[in-house]
Amino acid sequence: MKRLFLFLSLALLLSSCANKSMTRYEELSGPLEKGGFEAGIKAVVENQEDLYGSNTEFLYYFDLGTLYHYNGAWAQSAQNFEKATQVYDDLFARSVTNEAAAVVTNDNVRPYRARPFELLALYEMNIVNYIAQNDVDGAMVEVKRAQIAMEALYQKSNKDVNDAGYLRYLSAIVYEMAGEKDDAAISYFKTVQAYEEDPVALPSEAWEFITEYLREQGRDEDLKELKRTAPADASKAKAVREKGSEIIVLGYAGHSAILGEWMLSGTYVKGGVLNLTGKSAKTGKIESMTLPAPAISTGANAGTTVSVTIALPERKDLNYQVKKFDIKVDGAPAIFKPEVVADVTENLDRNIEQEKTTTVTRTIIRVATRTIAAQEAKKAMRTDNLLINLATNIGTDLAAAQLEQADLRVGLFLPKDIQMTRIPVTPGSHQVNVLAIDKNGSAVKNYEYKVNVRAGEKAWIVVPAIK
User: Fold this and answer.
1) Where would I find the beta strands (DSSP E) of 317-409?
2) What residue ranges do the domains of the chain occupy?
3) Could you report the per-residue pLDDT of 65-87, keeping only the tens digit for each?
4) Fewest Cβ atoms closer than 10 Å to its Cβ: which of 102, 216, 340, 366?
């Protein structure tokens, strides 16, 4: 009796801590959609304890930093990203005491450590934060910190953690702005290499600017080593060099996917097999899978199978409007079309796939451990009364199932795509119109900017079309 009471009490206690990931987006997306970025920021702050909690501290500061970034509050964004970075660093500098609890409950009781693409996205946005404040030195600091972060990720798993083409490209431009020509050339070279393993192909405009810069720096051997066909047209890059100034438009288009929960139920067959069926959060269809599992002892009277439920994270697409941008400068007829430099949803998808084996294995072990505990509890409470035995079995199985929750924690406000274009201009004041367009070619919103560009400098425009 005591053993069963303890097991059911643990299940009730931990399952009462509802999976905050399941409700976080629903609670926060409404204020953001109705009231804009300021309303979104307010909702995040007011619901910190209820929707984030201490184990999701990284995402609290990450989401805040992202929303402040979109709102043009560059300093506040940088402050929150710094706090998120500190949380990330602290998690690897101190011992984590609740890892054991995750073995018998679920991964949500563990402190959230950030997905690799989230950490790199943090640095990407923070670099832009400093550029927007005309603080090239600050941007340089973030570039160097980003490089250290990438190296650390590779050291942990060179097989699974891929390079980031957009971050390399952004870093190269910052080096160029700082007058660090050799570092800029090296970073441009690494940009091409990074895009070879990126979900997004190397943008043609980026290749054009990279080619011109490496040639200008006398690095023809580097170009040969890259083994790529020369750009068909390098007029834009040449025009920037001739005019000496440019406007760089950085557009955040659409809304990245988040995570949904794939609940699978079925039977654990004595001998080490899981036969599971459930509705996929990604496809919306009922799907089945058979997985190997560690053998567990179910007792002589428990039969050859037991009922189990496991929960896995799966990509969940969100509806969004903005697909691309059309840009005009000073009312001229020419239209500039940014290219996709990063696809956040594809990065999430790749991260899920890379971690799938580890996630499934850890989940199976967790379910097996709980199943053992449940079976032992049933044996301890077995009586001569069939109704009591039935109630005990049902209650124990329900308690074990309630503990199963997938870890759906992920940054909620990242864009689907990051798009960029570099526009050659003469020094002076310019009117820039950015038209956000949906997949059907219809206008969603027109953004207007007045930009002053100094001779020999680059002016940046950030378009937060997270719709």
Assistant:
1) 322-329, 339-343
2) 260-315+354-402
3) 999 999 999 999 999 999 999 99
4) 216
Cα–Cα–Cα angle for 79, 84, 87, rounded to 5 degrees: 130
Dihedral pair phi/psi, residue 448, rounded to 5°: -120, 135
- The angle, 0 to 180 degrees and rounded to 10, between the axes of the packed helices 74-91 and 57-70 is 160
What is the rounded distance in angstroms from the CA atom of residue 322 to the CA atom of residue 296?
51
d(CA 32, CA 38): 8
pLDDT tens digits along 321-350? 999 999 999 999 999 999 999 999 999 999
Specify the DSSP element, H or E, that contains 19. Answer: none
Residue found under tokens 């890059």:
237
Helix (H, G, I), strand (E, B) or coil at 158: coil
Amino acid at 406: A
For the chain, how are helix, strand and coil distributed in percent, rounded to 5?
50, 20, 25
Tokens 């959230």 belong to residue: 112
The owner of tokens 């790749």 is: 350
DSSP code for 107: G
Class of residue 398 by CB neighbours under 10 A (exposed 0-12, middle 13-18, buried 19+): middle
d(CA 265, CA 276): 5
Comparing CA positions, the residue from 358, 344, 326, 339 lying closest to residue 445 is 326
The pLDDT assigned to 361 comes to 75
Distance CA 270, CA 293 (A): 10
Q: What pTM was computed for the model?
A: 0.87
Q: What tokens appear for 388 in the block?
A: 């009591």
List the Cα angle 159/173/175 in 5-degree steps: 90
CB atoms within 10 A of CB 442: 9
- Nearest Cα residue to 105 out of 306, 357, 362, 366: 366
pLDDT along the chain (467 residues), means of 10: 45 48 87 96 96 93 98 98 95 59 61 93 98 97 95 68 87 97 96 93 97 96 94 91 94 96 78 79 82 58 62 91 97 96 96 85 71 59 52 49 78 97 96 97 97 95 96
| Residues 6+ positions from 397 with CB-CB distance below 8 Å | 307, 374
Q: What is the pLDDT of residue 401?
A: 52
Long-range contacts of 214-218, Cβ-Cβ distance < 8 Å, separation of 24 or more = 214/185, 214/188, 214/189, 216/241, 217/181, 217/182, 217/185
CA distances from 329 to 157, 247, 428 (A): 45, 10, 12
> 32: which 2 tokens?
């953001």
